[in-house]
Amino acid sequence: MSPTKPKVYIVGVGMTKFCKPGSVDWDYPDMVKEAVNSALDDCGLKYADIQQATVGYLFGGTCCGQRALYEVGLTGIPIFNVNNACASGSSGLFLGKQIIESGNADVVLCSGFEKMAAGSLEKLASPIDDRSKREHYAKIAYKNHLHSVHNPKSQFTKEFSLDQVINARKIYDFMGLLECSPTSDGAAAAIIVSDRFLEKNPRLKSQAVEIVGLKLGTDLPSVFAEKSNIKMIGFDMIEKISKELYAETKLTPNDVQVIELHDCFAPNELITYEAIGLCPLGKGHTIVDRNDNTYGGKWVINPSGGLISKGHPIGATGVAQAVELSNQLRGRCGKRQVPNCKVAMQHNIGIGGAGVVGMYRMGFPQSAQSKL
Known about the structure:
The protein is an alpha/beta fold. The protein folds into 2 domains: 8-117 and 183-207, 3-Layer(aba) Sandwich (Peroxisomal Thiolase, Chain A, domain 1), CATH 3.40.47; 134-181 and 213-361, Peroxisomal Thiolase, Chain A, domain 1, CATH 3.40.47. The protein is built from 14 helices and 12 strands. The longest helix is centred in the first third of the chain and has 16 residues, at 28-43.
């Protein structure tokens, strides 16, 4: 048997408000500084306590992570720049977890950012599944916009009717503007620690969120062999690592209450229901029909508003998902709080490709209860 891995916990999270490119007069170091300082304040640590760091981003030159974190401090720590398309942020979190598991650090900062240029998505293809109807995709976008109304960090906080979603300006084929993630500026940060660190700092146990499992995978031959849009967006990769995650954590979708899922376009969310095993193949639309993706249903999927409404600053997205799930587990989400939230799941994907899925829960639920 392989030795048991040390446990890894998120103790501090922070993020900027996601916003339309150019709407705020800031550069990426300003965003990262705000997110990191927020995460440090959340757990009462100082930047000098950070032993290593990862920074995910897509658009930028070499060593942008150093340039950003130098605004917070110049402590000489190892800083890893991570570029894994839209999964850059969660890939950095995966790397940070491995650093702690290896014993090379007890406190790692995982951050992600993006400063994007405004532009059109009209040339992007849509991975359509003809087993679902037009209205299923519109209902997903309607749901995510509705969820974001109570998220102050969301790029959009306006409620849209289903008719407004369906009749919005078309971007590709049938798909409208409100069913697509926007270009966004923003940053997010999470501070992860070892169990050894928590034993020395027991005050943090009440807010420590355990990363029960985190799996990263890349494309399989079927992406190139089958000429399928569904395969192209990493369906098989996600299906494979999801099964590995469930086996490793001994958790299943039935144990989960809340999911942050990579809804870059509404069809991607529906297709991913099947890839992560929420339903049998070809039955993703039934989750929409039963309202099992929102409050009152089996799962609350994208309570933050998801990429479609919260925004999608590419390098920040995966970390922002961890921020939302940590806050949900800690019961800090106000009007968008998922009731009885015990287990949370993450799905983040970058075309080309990289996929990350993860499971989270409170590390010390008794300590968390005693603090209430």
